[in-house]
Each structure stands twice: as C-alpha cells, then as structure tokens.
C-alpha cells in the first residue's frame, strides 16, 4: 500500500531538515578548515623562530604522518556513517558493534605505526635527509610522533562518532580549541622554554589530548549512544559492509591523488619549466575548488541518519539543497579564477606578461574540470547508502579518464594542449552518470532520477509540515484522520493517535514565531504506528522528564495544562524516545497494534 508521493512532497516544506543540514555543514567546514589554518600558522612560527632547516625537517615528515592520519580517519569514517544510520533505526546493538569495529581498526593502525616510527626513528631520519642539520631536527621532532599518533586515533574515533550521534558542533568546538592550543603551545615552547624541533611534536600531542579532553563530558554522559562491546560471529559481515561504504566515501580522495601524480609525470615529460609553474598554481586552485569536502561530509552524516529513520522526503530535500550548494560554490570559485587568472600568476611570482599569460589556459581548464567533476560527483554521493559501488565506479572513471585524455591531447596536438584533456573529462563523466542513472532509477518515481532512494516497501507514511500558528490546524487533523482510516488500525488506537497528535500540535504552537513549521510524520508499520516529530529550537514537550502523578499524590502539586497533555501522551503511547541530533529535536512515539 502506498500513498501519492506528489501529495506528500507538497505537504512537507523541508525547512527543519534543511536548517539541520546547513548548521551541520557550517560545523563540518569549520572542522575541515581549522587544522589547515593551524598547520599554516605552525609552519610560519617554526620557520621564523627555528629556521628554514627545522621547517624543512618537519615538512619532510608531514606527508608520512598525514598518510597515517588519513588511514585512521577513514577507518573511522565508514563505520561512523553506518552507525548514524543504525542510530536512526534505533538499532543500538549494531551501532555499538560499528563503534567497536572502528576502535579496533584505528587502534591497530596507530599502534603499529607508532611502534615502527619509534623503533626506526633514526633510520627514518637518515633516509629522508642525509643532511645533518635537517636529520638532527627530524630526529628530535619524531620522538613525540608515536604518542601523537595514538592520541590522534582516539581523537579521530571520538570526532567521527560524536558527529554520528548528531553532536557535530561539539566536534567543531573541540577541533578549533585543540588547534588554538597547538598554535599557542608551539609558540610558548619555543619562545618561553627555548625548545627546538621537539616543540612541534609536543604541541601536536597537546593538541590531540585537548581534543580528547574536550569531548570527554559528551561521551561520559548517559546520552552518548555508542559503547564498546564484544562480538565475534558477525565481525566479518560488519567489516565487509563497512569496507564497501569506506571505499565509496574515500574513493574520490584516492582518485584525486592518482590524478595529480599522473599529471605531474605527463607535465614533466611534455612541458618546460613554465609548465611546472602553471601546474603549481593549478594545484592551489584544485585544493580550493575541492573545498566542498566539509559540505559532503555533513550531507553524508545527516543523510545516513535520515536513511535509518526512513525519512525519504527529508533525504530528497537535503539532496536538492546539497546539489545546489555544490553547484554554486564550485562555479563561483571557477569564475573567480577565470577572471583573475593573470593577477594570480603575477601574485605567485610571474615576472613577465608572457609567463603570466602561459598560466591562463591551464588554470581555466583545471578549475572548470574541477567544478564539473564535483557537481557530477554529487550524484554518486547520493548512491552511497544503497549502492556504494556506483560512486566507486564514478571515481574509477574519473581517475582513468583525466590522465588518459591529457596524454592523448599532448600526444596528438602538442604538450601545451594537454590541459584540454581535463575539461573534456566532464563529457565522459556526464555520460557515466546518465547511463547508470537510467539503469538504476525507477521509471515511475518523481524524485531526481539519480538512484537516490529505494521504495519504502509496504510502509505507508503521512509526512507533513505543521504551522506553529495553527492556521491549518483543522486541515492537518483531517489529514491525520484520513491517514489512520487508510491504515485500518481500529477505532481505539486511531483515537489515541489522533489525541496525541492534537496535543502535540497544540503544545508546540507557542514555541516559535508565526510562519515557522515543524515536521510530523506518521508511519504504519507491521506491528505499530509510529509518530516522529522534528523541530529546530525548543525541545519537544513529550520528553520533559517530570513525574506528574507522583508530584500530585505526594506533594499535592496540580499539573498545568501542558503537563496534563504530557501525561496524556505518555499514557497513550507504548514508547517515547527523544534525541537532539544535527541541530534537530526529534521525538519518537510508538503505538503498538498488539500490546502485550
């Protein structure tokens, strides 16, 4: 049994989930930007006060720690996204297993890496640079890296799963505060205690420890949903599921790294030194154009939660919003680079108009290739929850096509024309998206035809936005009545549900300004009818923790109208659960069809 999808979509404005997505994206972008900014400041402090040799030593080892940290963070990312989904499904058992799985993998990576670096630190320093002035600084810096890797594994695990629990702002605050501690501590250790290269390693450890300490109140409270558990029988099954999600989430990073490596070889072969100058500026442009990483991370987390909750309409709303944001951001960056091409070349050291002009075509080709690939990539991101291999296929096509087309253009029409291979990639990517979406999407769906969602099966949903001003109160109650009639749940249960809906709407009417709305969804399941209410702002009344009956019996306190309404809702429903996730207040009310 299904309801008319178009009518449901018109009834739901999506304001709540879109506001949730935007607030989550702001937090994720801050989380992404803060470490990069701190690394830049640290580099300036080290080079200014400890000299260029010390800066070179630390810079030489940063790619190694960066690679290890990337392995740790990605090991936590896949399980945490899946845990967000199971959290939305109220499946606490699987969520805890995913948390444990991520902890085991990140601990293994960090401990093994820390032992290798600690045991072979002198050999590593000698291999990276035989210059004594650099290797001595490097040996001093490396002393504290093993401890930093272990602390970072704990911090990455907490960051990922506190985000999955919906407390994304806490993670942003933790990352920002730890970044400030990093900068202040490295400056203080150098200027006050006159410590050399060791200061950078100590500062990293203090930063990671600060991140952990900042999140301890969040994870130690009774509201943190994830816990370590022991499990054996389903370990390989859960690991396999998360490997697919991990690959789907991180395949773009791998493809981008391969593309840059391949292009570097092609450019070195076909172009003179001026080509390397243009390529250097293009790489800076690429890093800025791919700045939508924070937006996509936020989308994946919120979408995962809504998937577990069964909120297909909410998923559609945030998918459209994410697509629009990506289009605007990447296009704007590409336009800016296109307009100021010569000025950027001069700013980065072009000492002649000819050298500045040589950057123009490469930079324009690169930024528009990047913008088009990022926009098309969103359609692959939409598939991660159900078909992650579609996203992997997109990134595989991307990783192969870019260097191949660049090589072909260079071979057939001269090295200077290799840049035209990059924007030409967009044609191949668009064809991939069109073909795969045509195969995967359902012909009779009225959603964006890019394999966004699966059908809800036999679940019947009423999905509406309710105005706080009660302007459409009677109309909303009529919709609820008609929905319950279709569900055939019986007059008694239908009466209870209608009463609870009426009390919910009445009690929430004074919470927000006129014109605002909250979301109300009813789902007819096999054994129960569930109500899910979402709003942004004041907490929902059904979850206020007051023992009204005992207060009346023992203290003679007469409850007010709102408290009586709360008691009515609690007595009618079989189960009430409240969560604050991704800036939303979410209340679940369950009404059993066959109470025991």
Describe the structure.
Helix 10 packs parallel to helix 17. Helix content is 71%, strand content 7%. A five-stranded antiparallel beta sheet has the order 1-2-3-5-4. The longest helix is centred in the first third of the chain and has 37 residues, at 52-88. By secondary structure, the protein is an alpha+beta fold.
Strand order across the biggest sheet? Answer: 1-2-3-5-4
Overall pLDDT confidence: 81
- Structure class: alpha+beta
Bulk shape: globular
Strand percentage lies at 5-15%
Tell me the radius of gyration: 27 Å
Structure summary, number of beta strands? 5
Q: Please tally the helical runs, counting DSSP H or I stretches of 4 or more residues.
A: 22
The helicity comes to over 70%
Order of helices and strands: HHHHHHHHHHHHHHHHHHEHHEEHHEE
Distance between the termini: 26 Å
Q: Which residues sit in consecutive blocks of at least 5 with pLDDT less than 50? A: 1-10, 446-457
The main β sheet shows up as: 5 strands, antiparallel
Question: Main attributes?
Answer:
596 residues, alpha+beta, 5-stranded antiparallel β-sheet, 22 helices
Please sum up the structure shown.
With 596 residues, the chain is α+β, with helices and mostly antiparallel strands.
Helix/strand layout:
Blueprint: H1 5-11, H2 15-49, H3 52-88, H4 92-119, H5 121-128, H6 132-142, H7 145-164, H8 168-191, H9 198-220, H10 235-270, H11 273-289, H12 293-309, H13 312-339, H14 341-347, H15 353-358, H16 360-381, H17 388-413, H18 421-440, E1 460-467, H19 473-487, H20 491-508, E2 517-524, E3 528-535, H21 548-555, H22 561-572, E4 575-581, E5 584-592
């Amino acid at each position: 049994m299904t309801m008319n999808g178009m009518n449901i979509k018109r009834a739901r404005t999506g304001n709540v989930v879109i506001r949730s997505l935007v607030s989550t994206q702001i937090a994720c972008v801050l989380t992404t930007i803060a470490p990069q900014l701190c690394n830049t400041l640290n580099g300036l402090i080290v080079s200014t006060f400890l000299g260029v040799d010390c800066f070179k030593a630390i810079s030489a080892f940063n790619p190694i720690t960066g690679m290890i940290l990337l392995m740790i963070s990605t090991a936590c990312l896949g399980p945490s996204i899946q845990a967000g989904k199971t959290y939305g499904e109220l499946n606490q058992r699987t969520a805890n297993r995913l948390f444990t799985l991520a902890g085991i993998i990140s601990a293994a990576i960090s401990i093994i890496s820390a032992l290798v670096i600690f045991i072979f630190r002198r050999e590593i320093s000698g291999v990276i640079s035989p210059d004594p002035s650099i290797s001595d600084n490097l040996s001093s810096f490396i002393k504290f890296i093993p401890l930093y890797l272990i602390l970072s594994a704990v911090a990455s695990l907490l960051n990922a799963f506190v985000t999955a629990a919906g407390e994304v702002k806490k993670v942003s605050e933790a990352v920002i505060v730890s970044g400030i501690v990093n900068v202040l501590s490295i400056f203080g250790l150098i200027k006050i205690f006159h410590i050399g290269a060791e200061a950078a390693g100590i500062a990293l450890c203090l930063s990671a420890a600060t991140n952990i300490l900042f999140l301890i109140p969040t994870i130690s409270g009774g509201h943190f949903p994830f816990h370590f558990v022991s499990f054996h029988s389903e370990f390989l099954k859960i690991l396999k599921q998360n490997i697919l999600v991990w690959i789907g989430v991180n395949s773009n990073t791998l493809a981008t790294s391969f593309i840059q490596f391949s292009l570097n070889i092609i450019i070195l072969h076909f172009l003179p030194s001026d080509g390397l100058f243009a390529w250097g500026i293009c790489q800076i442009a690429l890093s800025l154009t791919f700045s939508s990483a924070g937006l996509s991370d936020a989308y994946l987390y919120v979408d995962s939660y809504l998937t577990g909750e069964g909120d297909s309409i909410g998923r559609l709303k945030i998918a459209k919003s994410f697509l629009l944001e990506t289009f605007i951001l990447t296009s704007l960056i590409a336009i800016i680079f296109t307009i100021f091409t010569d000025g950027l070349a001069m700013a980065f050291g072009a000492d002649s108009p000819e050298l500045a002009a040589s950057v123009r075509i490469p930079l324009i080709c690169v930024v528009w290739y990047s913008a088009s690939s990022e926009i098309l990539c969103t359609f692959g991101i939409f598939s991660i929850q159900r078909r992650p291999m579609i996203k992997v296929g997109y990134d595989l096509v991307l990783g192969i096509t870019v260097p191949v087309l660049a090589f072909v253009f260079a071979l057939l029409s001269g090295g200077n024309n290799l840049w035209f291979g990059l924007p030409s990639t967009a044609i191949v990517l668009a064809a991939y998206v069109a073909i795969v979406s045509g195969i995967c999407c359902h012909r009779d769906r009225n959603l964006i035809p890019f394999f966004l969602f699966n059908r809800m099966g036999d679940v019947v949903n009423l999905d509406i936005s309710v105005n706080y001003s009660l302007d459409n109160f009677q109309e909303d109650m009529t919709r609820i009545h008609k929905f319950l009639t279709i569900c055939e749940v019986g007059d008694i249960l239908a009466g209870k549900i209608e009463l609870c809906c009426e009390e919910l709407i009445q009690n929430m009417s004074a919470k927000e300004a006129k014109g605002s709305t909250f979301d109300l969804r009813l789902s007819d399941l096999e054994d129960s009818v569930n109500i899910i209410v979402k709003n942004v702002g004041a907490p929902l009344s059904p979850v206020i923790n007051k023992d009204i009956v005992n207060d009346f019996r023992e203290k003679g306190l007469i409850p007010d109208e709102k408290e009586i309404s709360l008691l009515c809702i609690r007595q009618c429903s079989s189960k009430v659960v409240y969560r604050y996730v991704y800036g939303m207040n979410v209340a679940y009310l369950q009404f059993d069809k066959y109470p025991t």
